[in-house]
Design brief:
Elements lengths: L11 H20 L4 E2 L8 H10 L6 H19 L5 E6 L7 H9 L4 E6 L3 H11 L5 E3 L6 H11 L5 E6 L9 H14 L5 E7 L4 H7 L6 H17 L8 E8 L4 E8 L3 E5 L4 E5 L4 E8 L5 H7 L3 E9 L4 E8 L1
Parallel strand pairs: 1-11, 2-3, 2-5, 3-4, 5-6
Antiparallel strand pairs: 6-13, 7-8, 8-11, 9-10, 12-13
Helix pairs in contact: 2-9, 3-4
This protein binds S-adenosylmethionine.
The site of S-adenosylmethionine has 21 residues, from helix 2 and helix 3.
Length: 330
């Protein structure tokens, strides 16, 4: 039986707290000297989450279909590697479409408690709709940041139950490599030996193919990116002139990552009245909004080994180089 997503209590205190945190992160990112930055997690308000679902349908964004194909094909093999009863937590579940294949495979042998964790309430709502009709699967969503949510889920597990943590969609790629390692270590601290982590990673491929994936012809990814400034205008009473903002995508070969930026095509003084903050954006200056690191297949098991796991298997999509990597906490 499915239950409603468990959201953080929607009191005005919590809403004000989230707004205060948003405001403070925006001030730090836009007020710093040098490259201006905004945390990519703020791309996913209700509008951003809906646009991300459309991005997953775009011909250029092969990443999402590769994740879907590989799980459709290999979920039974992945689940066969797990011994014992497992509860499932998913970090940044989004709408949970590809998770279905894993839940189906696991539910053939046990009843499944599935805990999607996402900072976007609307993504969790879609996830609930997407998966609520599955037999032998109960869903309780957590509208939380990754590690806060995972801690809550870990506290709910019963004696003898292991935890399978899913981190799909190559969302790990949003972290710089050292920060990605640190994140895996933080996840490991919450786990016990025998718990598993299924980590999806987008692999290196020709640069034009990667650039097109983040700069599609229909302009949906551009809208997704620009929505971050529109969100700031809405929530912090800002006055970014979006008609003079361009979506920019570049590939940094040394770091092996796609970067998304927003570039101003004129000088603009931006005031965020609710944040009591004002700054100057120069003509040509960019705000860095997201990184998507790309991996080679050999480095992913090494990432696991140096952060407290052993890699038990890798499954690949060959149409769009992409890997599902299964780690066990040691
Ligand atoms: C790239 S999407 C991936 C969605 C889905 N896993 C997939 O593979 O299609 C990233 C998801 O993580 C969520 N997210 C981003 N940062 C987060 C954070 N710090 N804590 C919790 N969720 C986060 C976003 O709201 C979004 O739904």
């Amino acid at each position: 039986m499915a239950t409603a997503p468990r959201m953080a209590p929607s009191t005005s205190t919590v809403t004000n707290q989230a707004l205060a945190e948003f405001s403070s992160d925006v001030i730090v990112g836009l007020g710093q000297p040098g490259q201006k930055e905004l945390p990519s997690k703020y791309l996913y308000d209700e509008v951003g989450s809906a646009l991300f679902d459309v991005i997953c349908l775009l011909p250029e964004y092969g990443l999402s279909r590769a994740g879907m194909r590989s799980l459709k094909r290999y979920a039974p093999d992945i689940i066969d590697c797990l011994n014992g009863p497992f509860v499932v937590a998913e970090l940044g579940s989004g709408s949970g479409q590809k998770t279905r294949f894993l839940l189906e495979a696991l539910s053939r042998r046990q009843r499944v408690n599935y805990y999607p964790i996402d900072i976007s309430g609307s993504a969790l709502h879609r996830c609930q709709q997407e998966l609520s009709e599955m037999d032998r699967v109960s869903i309780v969503g957590f509208e939380r940041a990754y590690l806060d949510g995972l801690q809550e889920v870990a506290a709910r597990r019963r004696e003898g139950e292991y935890l399978l943590v899913l981190f799909l969609g190559s969302t790990i790629g949003n972290f710089d490599r050292p920060a990605g390692d640190q994140f895996l270590r933080e996840v490991r601290k919450i786990l016990v030996p025998g718990d598993a982590l299924l980590l999806a990673t987008d692999l290196e491929k020709p640069i034009p193919q990667l650039l097109a994936a983040y700069d599609d012809a229909a302009g949906v990814t551009a809208a997704f990116n620009k929505n971050l400034l529109a969100r700031i205008n809405r929530e912090l009473d800002g006055n970014f002139d979006l008609s003079h903002i361009q979506h920019i995508v570049r590939y940094d070969e040394a770091e092996r990552r796609v970067e998304m930026h927003l570039r101003s095509t004129k000088w603009q003084r931006v005031t965020l009245r609710r944040a009591r903050f004002s700054f100057l954006l120069r003509d040509g200056e960019t705000i860095w909004t997201e990184s998507s690191h790309k991996y080679n297949p050999q480095e992913v098991p090494q990432m696991g080994e140096r952060t407290g796991y052993r890699c038990a298997g890798q499954w690949f999509d060959t149409e769009w180089p992409f890997a599902q990597n299964l780690f066990f906490a040691v």
